[in-house]
């Protein structure tokens, strides 16, 4: 018997941003809050507003910033070793290259 796949549960924080919530939905995900034990988190804020702890269910965090230096120096990434961290590092490359 085949197992039933559920859509990934993704929290957008620190506040629900309509653009990201629509992207989650159109990509087949289910928008949820951090309290609803998401599989992933899209974080649109900076390290100062990131929660001190994440639910054990979180396996992936997407940062909306290209730079991750502050996230590293403040120990946030190291505090969550079970999580895969990704950033928007390549998202701005064409704009930056064109500007240069």
Task: Please give a handful of descriptors for the protein shown.
100 residues; alpha/beta; Rossmann fold; five-stranded parallel β-sheet; 4 helices; 25% helix
Describe the structure.
- By secondary structure, the chain is an alpha/beta fold.
- It has a single domain (9-91), classed as Rossmann fold (3-Layer(aba) Sandwich), CATH 3.40.50.720.
- The protein contains four helices and five strands.
- It has helices spanning 18-26, 69-73, 76-79, 93-99; strands spanning 9-13, 30-32, 40-43, 60-63, 84-86.
- Strands 2-1-3-4-5 form a five-stranded parallel β-sheet.
- Strand 1 (9-13), helix 1 and strand 2 (30-32) form a beta-alpha-beta unit.
- The longest helix is centred in the N-terminal third of the chain and has 9 residues, at 18-26.
Write the layout of secondary structure elements.
Elements: E1 9-13, H1 18-26, E2 30-32, E3 40-43, E4 60-63, H2 69-73, H3 76-79, E5 84-86, H4 93-99
Parallel strand pairs: 1-2, 1-3, 3-4, 4-5
Summarize this entry quickly.
With 100 residues, this protein is an alpha/beta fold. It is built from four helices and five strands, in the order βαβββααβα. It has helices at 18-26, 69-73, 76-79, 93-99; strands at residues 9-13, 30-32, 40-43, 60-63, 84-86.
